[in-house]
Design brief:
- The structure is a single chain.
- The chain has one domain.
- By secondary structure, it is an all-alpha fold.
Amino acid sequence: MVEASGAAPASERPRPPATTVAAVTDRFVHAVELAAAALFALLFAVGVLDLALAIVGSVRRGTITDPLVVIGFIDTGLLLLIIVEVYQTVVAYTQERDTRQIVRLVIYTGVIAMVRKAIIFRTGEYATPGDALLAAVAYAVIIAGLVALLFVERVSDSTPAD
């Protein structure tokens, strides 16, 4: 079919090589993103099963009341939440959601990760008290920064557009 101008319609014109390569690589990246999402879902399922088995084992051994054991369970649970947040971020990328939503998911992941680090923080794991203090201050600064980012994102999200 020929248009009135004598040129072939856009659907029949050959695509430039760069456009074809970009389309193929875009499909490839999308497929890898979906594979990554499936992998994170599988990791989450395995982690939940492992956590459940560990809790049952702890109850049977009578160590369920040991604070370090409980902190270990909390650590594992928060790690599972991080996996869920990363999964949701990958899914948001694959669905090409709003950048603001993706940034919010990344901030949530960071907050959960840093809270996890704060919960399992032990000063005895550092060579000197100064090293432990430096790590604690660094964690506090990162958490404060993430909370500030979350606050700014929330406030800017609720501000009416002009």
